[in-house]
Amino acid sequence: MRELRIVDFICLKPRRKTFGHIAFLNKTDAERFLAVHGEQEVPSARYKPRFQAHLHLLGTEVFCKPSNRNIREFTLRALQYSVEQRGGNSTQERDEQPTFQLDIDEFSCGYCSFNEDQLVFTPEVAWSQKGVFTLKGRNFKLTTRDGYLLRIPTSSIIALVHYDDGLLTFILSDVPYFFLEHSKAPLTMTLPLLSLEKSSITHFRLPALSDEHATIIGQCLVYQFRAPALDLIRCMMSLKESDLSVFYHDLTPKQALRSSARGLHSDLQTFLDQLSEWTRKGDLPFGVLYQLQALVYNAYLHPTTVQILGSKLCAISQDRRQRGLAPISADAVRTLLNTVHWALPFDNPEVFQPDSLLATLRLDREAKMERTTQKSVSADLSSDHVLIHRVSVSPARITFHGPEREPQNRVIRKFPRHHAYFIRVQFCDERGSDLFFNPKHDYEQIFQRFRTVLTLGIQIAGRTYTFLGFSHSSLRSHSVWFSSPFIDGDGSLQTSSSIIKALGNFSGITSPARCAARIGQAFTETPFTLPVQNVVVEYIEDITSSDESRVFSDGIGTISLEVVERIWKGIPQKKGTPTCFQVRLGGAKGMLSLDSRLEGSVIRIRPSMVKFSTDDMRDLGICGMASEPYPLVLNRQIVKILEDIGVPDDWFFGLQNDRLRQLQLISSSADKTATFLKDAKIADSIGLYKLFRWCYWMDLDYREDPFLRSIVEAMILRELRLLKHKSRIPVPQGMTLYGIIDETGYLKENEVFITFDTISGLYAAPPGPGPVLVTRSPALYDGDIQVARNVVPPPDHPLARHKNCIIFSQQGARDLPSQLSGGDLDGDLYHVIWDPIVAKVHTSPPANYARVVPHDIGRVVTTKDMAYFFVEFMKTDCVGIIATRHMILADQEPEGTHASGCKLLAELHSTAVDYSKSGVPVDMAKIPSTGRFRPDFMAPGPLAQVYSKSKITLTELSSHAAYDEDGPSHILYYKSDRILGKLYRAIDEKRIWHERIDTGPSPDEDSFWARFVSYLTCRHSLSQPDSCTVDEALRLRSA
Known about the structure:
Distance between the termini: 63 Å
Protein name: RNA-dependent RNA polymerase
Domain RDRP core: 394-987
Oligomer: single chain
Number of helices: 30
Domain RdRP-like PH: 102-241
Largest sheet: 7 strands, mixed
Shape: globular
Mean pLDDT: 86
Helix content: 25-40%
Radius of gyration: 32 Å
Strand content: 15-25%
Number of strands: 45
Keywords: Nucleotidyltransferase, RNA-binding, RNA-directed RNA polymerase, Transferase
Strand order of the largest sheet: 7-10-11-12-15-16-22
């Protein structure tokens, strides 16, 4: 094509077929192509005509002729879109990478250390496999002749080190990605894939390249490759314009420089044994030992180095105890995780020695800091949060983090003195992101590793942490709780089994998914609790339809004013006086709404709220409350349904333009910036908006400081991108509210009452009587948006006591919440719109899906069953895939969301959402295919890159989750003529960024902070005497 100067074409080939199609935008291009490469008929007198090929690919004849099919509409639109984007300096064209292709003779994995003042490389595992090393997209990729593939993202490269002898060394921050070609895999791996649906698998994802490699992979982040010297020089020249850190240094392997003759794996085991010994003897606090193990497991330091450091800390700790001083602070050791960096050429080798590391800790100063700040830290860490260690399990290694703030839950609150025996474990890909599933890759080896960790547990400083449980939200984020055995305050041994047993009776539940969901109620975040010893808990019947086929009160009970007032006293004053609460009480979950007619201290529970039986009814755990309304922000699914039911385009454009004007004015003054940060609750816990408010009062331009300026720019850029790429459009005449039921029977069928605080005029007043639109997310079915009639009760009516909620009627044949994406009243949030332009549209009938019967194993569920379900959920959760397919199909089908394919996807999406509780996955074969074509509003945008830790720029590079670095991107975009495409193209984020946001005065950091400090010093001197002590100064500096 390049020789023919043909640019605008698309090559399409069906899987497992011997034919394909080439589509040209211009007819003349097609004619020129056929003139050169078209098949030629060879005359034959007796037989059918034969043809001669004029195109050969990899030695195979390719016969080209005009197709007897018409070109598809979206193929033509994709070609036209490509031309438009290319002419408009598209950000979606992948940049031309430097030519980098290098033949590799062998490679190895190990670590770098210093021999006196010389940095040397010590290989632990070596492979004498030949291969080809290339740079494609943003990945270096090695493909070996044995079928192995090693992928190194450029973002994980700390440094590239090369030398004249042909050695190229990668010093990395994370483990590479490893694959094995299907054709080269052993039979044990390929045998399970003989089924038809997995015949497209091309590669297996591997946790390591060999068993020996797996033992050291987490601690060895240096990979060295040997190539022909002259070829390496040529390739390194091609990288001179890149932003990679490149060093010229001799890193020839020095086998004799091992810390011991046994190798790193043996050194690691010796280190772990020593940690266990220190734990058993109590030589060091567990928090310190955790940080020491983190230094090794996170590959910052060699196990032997950390073991020597630990021995020195033991001696110091013993001396402190004898002198009656405070123990060594874990925070002091944790500072090494932020200060120690990877060893690079020309570094000072002294900083990696145990004595130098010990000096870095500044133990005496940290001890003072710990004493002086203990009270302030405790105050900042309110009773609704605790410090919990966090562990990440990736396909290749385990890394340690924290401790970090974690909201309280029922289990953690039960053992206030034993938080160190609980950890939060995140199962993720390298670098902490979710596993990205490529349909061409098999991940069974990775999931088997995850099962092993869930079954055997994690060893930390002599303790064994094993699987405990997970909440519904943590299941979707692939996070679980582990615990280690301990003796509680009553002298009883607590294990994961005893902790679960004490929660309630789960023996009657024979579905792993449902059992895990019920146990997960105890792990739901409950920031606030109320003792209920003096509260009467009553059980009342559910409110149902006349034929009892529908439960109107699904998940909701009532609470008396006396109990509500007790709750008000126990929550922060800024929470106000909410009247409905999302709660956990024993085995019950759901909402409790105020019923002012109840006398005394009463809580009423309904059968639909009770999920399991338990004797533990001591505390009412509060997960959430209607303390304030949530402004309504549209999303792409709701926008599409609104378009399909008749909402005019002008309504969307008006709202989007209003939001654009707001974003462009945010950086015009410090006062507007402060208001934006406060309203958006950005860094609300530290009151960041106050800093900008002070700048406004002092008449200082915060944009003079690069860091403060970058904070605001990053927040505006985030909002701008959410607006363009996700259609996150605020609706002033709309709100998102908790849903509850009318306990009084005042509201008639299809009537609602919408009530909320205006927050001193921040929001529009609640709607008066009239039609309103009601929906909830996710909304995929065209009937997931319904019209209801808002009714305002008299001021003295019990319903008038409520606020920040939408109250549904208990009358009619079917409850309204169930018509909105299968909603209920156990804590669901509902979107309401009362804009007259929108509220009078004609909606579609709601969906009516049959209930999914949970998967039943026919026996008591074990911990292993739930752990295996957790992994199975990771494998088969396809909510995102279905939602994406629905969005594509709704744009391509003339009927939009009314099309039968979209309704099928909406039903499958409902099944996928329930999968976490039912254990019944979606049949992937039922998901309609949408091909290679996608609307332009799903195309990627420009990358935002940060330079010098403060300067944000938008580059021409693009990224997309579907982009496959192993081959050309198969996704083709076309110009959408629906509302989502129009809204998307109406925002030119690069123009807005450069003309309206990335502007301001020249940086003058020193002058800005000098004036800021001078102003505060002056105010301080006028308000109180100069009486700061050393301890107070240390506390302020640590804040």
